[in-house]
Design goal:
Layout lengths: L13 E5 L4 H12 L3 E6 L2 H13 L6 E4 L5 H15 L4 E4 L14 H11 L1 H17 L2 E6 L12 H21 L4 E8 L5 H6 L3 H10 L8 H12 L10 E4 L5
Parallel strand pairs: 1-2, 1-4, 2-3, 4-5, 5-6, 6-7
Helix pairs in contact: 1-9, 3-5, 4-6
Length: 255
């Protein structure tokens, strides 16, 4: 039986999450709220996000603040973050989770499709970081957590622009870790394997895929959203105080 860790340092912390309404993001929002953190998140799935807030509040945890936001609109995203931080206080933790792994092939990608993939999967991570850094400096430190993917490690095919963006996450993390470390702002990457979210199961996962995962994983069983959330919690908490610039892989031993 699994027993999750409790992080005293997360109680009362202010956390901002992108793409928090479903899948991995839903687990991250829930996990922080269960620790007593004050969570704000953005998503384009309005109904799912509002329902999540209600479930968390009904369970007796601090109700998250949700705002509908298209993260490809940088000005709108930063304005939303400013509004939320004015209401909640400066953010202590930023989790860049939002992504879209739609399939595409090299031959048919247009420049506009390339730009759209970058605008969803890569660009927001820079500008959310830009938005939270002044407040983290005022707080005397903070934690930025960027989600990548093992797709670039395993030479994943069928979505080359997405794979490019997820490889770039590690570069951004390492650069920001160097620039921000003097302010006690830690920047790390969490790299999930193939997480069995409902979206993945509905759109992509076949019986053959499950057989292949069973073959390449060192650990038995599905990789689930809460496994990723557990690593994110650790990196948001003071327990990871001297961890920065690193890539924490959660993939059941695949890579």
């Amino acid at each position: 039986m699994n027993k999750s860790a409790s992080y005293a340092s997360l109680r009362g912390r202010r956390v901002f999450v992108t793409g928090g309404g479903s899948g991995i993001g839903e687990s991250i929002v829930t996990a922080f709220a269960e620790q007593g953190a004050h969570v704000a998140f953005v998503d384009i799935q309005r109904d799912a996000s509002l329902a999540l807030c209600e479930r968390i509040a009904a369970a007796g945890h601090p109700a998250p603040l949700f705002r509908y936001c298209d993260i490809t609109d940088v000005a709108g995203l930063q304005a939303t973050m400013e509004e939320l931080s004015t209401r909640m206080g400066d953010f202590d933790v930023l989790v860049n989770n939002a992504a879209n792994d739609h399939r595409h092939d090299l031959e048919n990608v247009s420049q506009s499709e390339w730009d759209r993939c970058i605008a969803v999967n890569q660009r927001p991570m820079f500008f959310t970081s830009q938005a939270v850094v002044p407040g983290m400096k005022r707080n005397g430190g903070g934690s930025i957590i960027n989600l990548s993917s093992v797709s670039w490690r395993v030479k994943g095919g069928g979505y080359p622009v997405y794979v490019t963006t997820k490889a770039a996450v590690v570069g951004l993390t390492r650069a920001l870790a160097r620039d921000l470390g003097q302010h006690r702002i830690r920047v790390n990457t969490v790299t999930p394997g193939w997480v069995m979210t409902q979206r993945q199961v509905d759109l992509w996962v076949s019986d053959e895929d499950r057989q292949e995962m069973a073959r390449v994983h060192c650990l038995p069983g599905d990789l689930l959203p809460h496994h990723i959330a557990s690593m994110v919690l650790f990196l948001g908490a003071d327990d990871s105080a001297m961890c920065t610039g690193h890539d924490f892989v959660v993939d059941a031993g695949w890579t």
